[in-house]
Amino acid sequence: PRRVVLDCDPGHDDALALLLAAGHPGIDIAAITTVGGNQTLEKVTRNALAVATVAGLDDVVVAAGCDRPLVRDAVLTDPRTHGESGLDGPVLPEPAVALDPRHGVDVIIEAVMAAGPGTVTLVPTGPLTNVATALRREPCIAARVREVVLMGGGYSKGNVTAAAEFNIYTDPEAAHVVFSAPWRVTMVGLDLTHQALATPDVVERFRALGTTAGRFVVDMLDFFGPAYRAKQGFPAPPVHDVCAVARVIDPDVVRVRPAHVAVELRGEHTTGMTVTDFAGREGQELDHLVATELDVARFWDLVLGAVGRLP
Ligand code: BDR
Ligand code: CA
Asked: What Pfam families does the record tag this protein with (predicted)?
């Protein structure tokens, strides 16, 4: 199995991404680290512990990381999307998993450095503050990780502004650090994640699992679906972060293209935009991979199969 660090801010789609990782035999979770994003660090950490509990991950490492962006003030997601708790909808169980006392950034560094070279994959699904801080404290992680597969950005649209996606918009300086480090990033952005819609038939498949985890997902989608419909006009909610984990498990689920990605830090209308160049027009190396197309049927089979293995 692929050893991963899930760096997240749950968040409904982060929570489903955790469940996918927990249930799939192709993934071995080295650690879950949290970052302020969809909600405050305190709330998203509590949510991560609750989701780990639902998944039956009794002795997984969960550690809290950075509570605010590197430079800018925090922009929490509009509470209409994820609720005041960051994970409104399901009743969250009392965590059976204890919070690791270490800082999330230290946990990321230790997980990468303790494992063999080229073995740990980082899967960030929130603002990139922890990962950027880890790179600054221990630059050796860049050469040591297997790869970075993140949810964030997009090459044709944004969701906070016309140009910028939430995870990148929240901490563009951190995103700049991550995209300019000497490692390969797979950017799973909005162009891809807007293809991963939890349509009513998908919700019914989760319900039909008849398990605690299946019920938990239905309760999440019962909140997340109407929230996305009301706020962004989507017929069904896109489960962004799940796509990044799916790509790690089965690369064929997500088609990618090589590209160079620069993060706009000073745009009048474009701050936080992931400026994606598929042609290397200014002579830059096409050093990253950018997700373009989702195999929708294969994706949901993968997710349902994994969640179906949970309690
Ligand atoms: C991203 O923003 C958050 O609201 C989601 O959890 C996802 O990581 C989508 O723009
Ligand atoms: Ca997220």
From this structure: IU_nuc_hydro (PF01156)
Question: Cα(51) to centroid of ligand 1, in Å?
Answer: 17
SS3 3: strand
For atom 10 of ligand 1, which residue has the closest CA?
166
Q: Which residues are catalytic?
A: 240
Tens place of pLDDT for every residue, the chain, 311 residues?
Answer: 999 999 999 999 999 999 999 999 999 999 999 999 999 999 999 999 999 999 999 999 999 999 999 999 988 777 888 999 999 999 999 999 999 999 999 999 999 999 999 999 999 999 999 999 999 999 999 999 999 999 999 999 999 999 999 999 999 999 999 999 999 999 999 999 999 999 999 999 999 999 999 999 999 999 999 999 988 889 999 999 999 999 999 999 999 999 999 999 999 999 999 999 999 999 999 999 999 999 999 999 999 999 999 99
Block residue for tokens 């700049």 = 176
- The rounded distance, in Å, linking the Cα atoms of 20 and 71 is 32
User: Is this model's pTM higher than 0.95 or not?
Assistant: yes
The ipTM (two decimal places) reads 0.99
Q: What are the structure tokens assigned to 44, written together?
A: 């998203």
Answer whether 8 contacts ligand 1 (Cβ < 6 A): no
Phi, psi of 11 (to 5 degrees): 80, 125
Structure tokens belonging to residue 171: 């901490």
Q: How far is the CA of 36 from the centre of ligand 2 (A)?
A: 10
